[in-house]
Design brief:
With about 190 residues, the protein is of the alpha/beta class. It has a six-stranded parallel beta sheet with strand order 3-2-1-4-5-8. The chain has a two-stranded antiparallel sheet with strand order 6-7.
């Protein structure tokens, strides 16, 4: 099966799971939150729609303090908000409807956790025919304990996805990376 390629050049910023309970255990959380906030500011300044995706689970019950966005991030009343329960922001959500309403063909992604919801959302977007730019300094995760006395450091997980997003190849789609200050919401894919 071939993905539906999204024709056109309409970008959006997708902010995923930058919530109090998620960022409380994330590596370099304050730096990443600052970069996500700056990316949101830049998108708004350029008239780029921002879509907010918020995770719910047993650990992040809807309405709880842990479920809330970090205080530095405030969705506006006219920005779409999507609730999710799975790692991919597309699974059993209204994200594709929100993207269709604004005619989005390109997604810029800033989120947590790198190895879970960020990766799943990036790959799902590509699978669905969107171009994707990952903001390299606006995502984070926590260390991964492999249970055998070994640990994967969060910085290595972040670096691995940043590299993967420049190597992935999908037919007729563009993907890549950019930093908070170099992301161009009008150009597909960022740096390869």
């Amino acid at each position: 099966m071939t993905a539906t390629i999204r024709e056109g050049n309409k970008g959006t910023l997708l902010v995923v799971d930058v919530q109090a309970g998620v960022m409380g255990e994330a590596s370099e959380a304050q730096r990443v939150i600052k970069n996500v906030a700056r990316t949101v500011e830049r998108a708004r300044d350029q008239g780029v729609p921002v879509i907010w995706v918020q995770h719910s689970s047993d650990e992040l019950p809807p309405g709880s303090e842990l479920w809330q966005w970090v205080p530095e991030l405030k969705p506006t009343a006219n920005e779409a908000r999507i609730d999710k329960q799975f790692e991919s922001s597309f699974e059993q959500t209204k994200l594709e409807e929100a993207l269709a309403r604004i005619g989005a063909t390109r997604i810029t992604l800033a989120s947590a956790m790198t190895n879970w919801c960020n990766r799943a959302t990036a790959y799902a977007a590509l699978d669905r025919g969107y171009d994707v730019t990952l903001v390299t300094d606006a995502h984070t995760t926590s260390n991964i304990d492999l249970g055998n006395g070994k640990m994967i450091e969060a910085a290595n997980v972040v670096a691995e996805l940043n590299i993967a997003m420049t190597w992935l190849r999908y037919p007729r789609r563009t993907n890549g990376t950019a930093t908070t200050e170099t992301v161009d919401f009008q150009t597909s894919g960022g740096t390869r």
